[in-house]
Structure formats: structure tokens, C-alpha cells
Specification:
With 503 residues, the protein is an alpha/beta fold. 31% of the residues lie in helices and 16% in strands. Strands 1, 2, 3, 4, 5, 6, 14, 15 and 16 form a nine-stranded mixed sheet that branches. It has a seven-stranded parallel sheet with strand order 7-8-9-10-11-12-13. The protein binds zinc ion. Zinc ion binds at residues 92, 94, 402, 405. The site of zinc ion (ZN) has 4 residues, from loops.
Amino acid sequence: MSKFFSYLVPIGLLFTLSVSVPARSEEQTSPLAITNVTIISPDLAEPQKNMAVIINKGQITAIVETSVMGDFQGEVIDAAGMYLTPGLMDSHAHTTHVPGFDYAGSPQEAKHPELVTAYHRQQPRSLLYHGVTQVLDPSPTPEWTKFTDGDIHPDLFRCGVLPNLGAYPQIPINRAIEAFPHFIMDPDSGYNMKKGLTADPTDHTPEAALKAIKESGAVCAKLYIEDGFGGLAHWPIPTDKLLGDIRRAADAHGLVLYAHANALDMVQIALRNNIDVLGHGMWNWQWPAEKGPAPLQETIDTIKYEGKGYIATFGVIDGLKQLTHENPLKDKRLNTVTPAALVKWYKTEDAQWFKSDLIAGFGPAADAATAYQAFEGISARGARVLAYLNEIGHENFVLGSDYPGSPSYAKQPGLSTLQEMEMMATAGLPLDKILAAATINGARMIGVDHIYGTIEVGKKANLLLLNENPLNSIGAWDTIDAVILGGRAIKRESLAAAQENCL
Ligand SMILES: [Zn+2]
């Protein structure tokens, strides 16, 4: 057992384990000292041993050697033998979509309101259970407030969605215009106009849309450079002229540009238009034969040269792959993050709709094995890009699981973040780069690295206490003893999904 809360100072100040979690917005009420701990932080060349970290009003106020700490009035966690890290940031997380269901607000959700409610209640806790204390949702629906309405949740950052109507992602799911309040009408391509929209174009210029996104409290704008999945090229994409206008408007309003782009030709468009963040790994390498050899290496070299934020999102393809291979519901870790009623639904025939659609997408003769093999190939390409970027010295890797990433139920909150880190390690990213990707890099990407991402005086106390050293094994990230959220220590077990009726 851990040494968590092994004594309290002064005696009599009763601090219960956070099974009953403090009410929303309740702040740290008394100072906390974490003593005898080894600090692991991406800004440190070496772990710092036998340290005391003092936290007050949600902030780190002092870091000293435990032996010189002196008198302290407050709660003390003797963390001898344990490791203190910054809390994790998942920089590609879809908080308004329930895994296994069609899109947020779909008729399918309307059929199962109790499952949707159970999911949204547990989701923030599942993220915290796996140490995720900050989340960036690149494309939330307006119902993102469900995430922050709960009694306890990671700090949420958002992008505003900036799609072209008549293009991805509006087309595949045929969502109504109202689902995308800040879309762009492109007078040059004209495809929005062809859809017969009645919206006033002056409300949907890059300037107007990015201004509205900024005013909504978002920190970034998500745009889509996707002409079709796999080798397809049947959807319109933004022109360079439009992307240039978007870049200028984003700069004027201080917004980061976050791109959906996962194919070689689409990544090139993002790079030449100076998009800040590549929100997916580059796993599609198709290139038209008439254009000569595919400029794969040059493109990856450019990502490194320009220091672009690179989010591998292995989870997207893994979520698809798992549906076509072993039953993902066999993974017992799911029970700690997914409400039991939802797991039960995932086992029904009704819940297999996406698996059937997915396999059918490979043609009438396709079976699960065909689909699995295809996804294996895609994953392998994503892994090779990550490995190559690492070899040539790229630093700006950013952790993002992209759960659920698709309507697959294989990708669940929190657990997906851990699995993403495991896949980054398997692809060959060293543990110190994974630490940076999971902490400081995501914070820096959206300009909040003065608050998050390292253990330094003045920063917010979103921290993790681990039983093992994450610079020794990736598995250490699954040895969380407690999550410190805004200075409040929460035992990990108290965050797990209710276990009644579990598998
Ligand atoms: Zn996504």
C-alpha cells in the first residue's frame, strides 16, 4: 500500500480521502506539503530526490529539500519512494461524443439518454483516473458544458470548429448547418454556395468566424484538410487563398490553428499555409503517380524543420483495429473507466452497427480479417513517421489520443490516453520525450505553459503521485496513487467507474 496521507499536521485537521469529492469549484482549503518525493519534470535534466513541494490555494508555492522544510502548518503527504510529475494533458480529446454512438446529438443518443448521462458523469473522472488533468477538445459541440458542470473535472480548453460546409466533416455525417456556428463560406471555391445555404456570407468570412471563435473563449480554431479517407479524393478542401486569410485572421485574434490532416498531400497543404498543429499522425502516403515520387521524407523533414506540433493519434486507427480483431470489451481496464450499463450495451447486437459498417466499407467480399490487415498497415505507417521524426531530432511531439476518434467503443476516456502513450513508446519514442509530449508541449502549444506542464513555483498544482518512475517504464503511468487537482489530493480508486454489475 502507498504511504499516502500517512500523517496529518496539525493532528486533528481531518482530511478524508476523496471518496466524497469536494463540490464543484471548491478550492484547496489548507496548505499541502508533499514530502520526501522524487520530482520528475520535463524541465529537469535529472530527477530531484527527497524534495518537498508546498502547495497553497491551488498553486505550487515552494520547492525545497525535505530536510530543510522546517515547520509546516497543513496537510502532509509523506511520499517517500514515490514520484511526482506534472498532470497529463490530452491535446486531442472529444468530450462531447459518446464512444460507440454515432455523432453527438444523433438519434441514437436520443434513444439511450440514460447511457449518455452516465457516460458524461463518469468521463471527467475517467480522465483523472488516468492522470489527465488538462484536456484540449479541438471540436466540441455546444454541449461541452456537460463536461465542466460535474463536481470534478480536468481543466478544459477548446478550439472553435471552422469547417467548410459541403466538405469534411459536415458531409459524411450530414449534420445541419446549425451544428457549425463558425463555418467558412469560400467565395473562391463556391461549394458552400452550391449547397444553397441561406446564411449571410458576411458572418462567415475568416475574420468574422475567427473573431467569433475568440469571443467564445476558445484558444484555437480547428480546420479540416481532408479530401477523402484512404485513397479517395471526393471532398472539396480549402484553397490556399482561403487558408491564407484564415492564417491572418487567426494571428489577428491570437488563435492557434489546429488542423485535421493525416495524408501526405493534406499535410503539405497544412505546412505551406503555416498551420500550427498537425492534429493527426501522417499515416496515409498515397501520392498521384503523375506527380512523380511521393515527397515523403521532405515532408517529414519540413515538420521537424518548422518545429510543428505533431500529434500522432495512434488511437484513431487502433480504435478501428480493435473492433475488427479481439473483442475490446475483454480488456478489464475498461471497467474502471466506463459505466457498467454502457459496457453492457456495448455487448448487444445493436451496438455492433459501426463494426458492420466498418467492415462493409472494405467491399462486399471483405471480412474482419481484411479490415484488420488494412488497419495494421495504416498503424505501421504512422509508427514509422513518428520513429523517423524522433531519429532526426524532432522535439515537438504532443500527446493526443483523439478518443473516441470514431464511433468505435474501443476507445474510452483516460484509458485511451494511457494506450496512446504505450503506442508512442512502442513506436520508438523515448520516455523523456513522451513525458514532454504529455505535459509541457501541449501546454506550450496553446500558450498556457506558464500555468501547466512542469513542477515549478508559481504553476498550478495539477500533479500526479506515481508509485513507479515514468522515465524507467511507460507502465509507470498506470501506477498512479493520487491525482492532485488544483492542490486537492484525490485517491485514484475514488475516480473509478462504479463496479456494480461489472464483467
Ligand atoms: Zn479528432
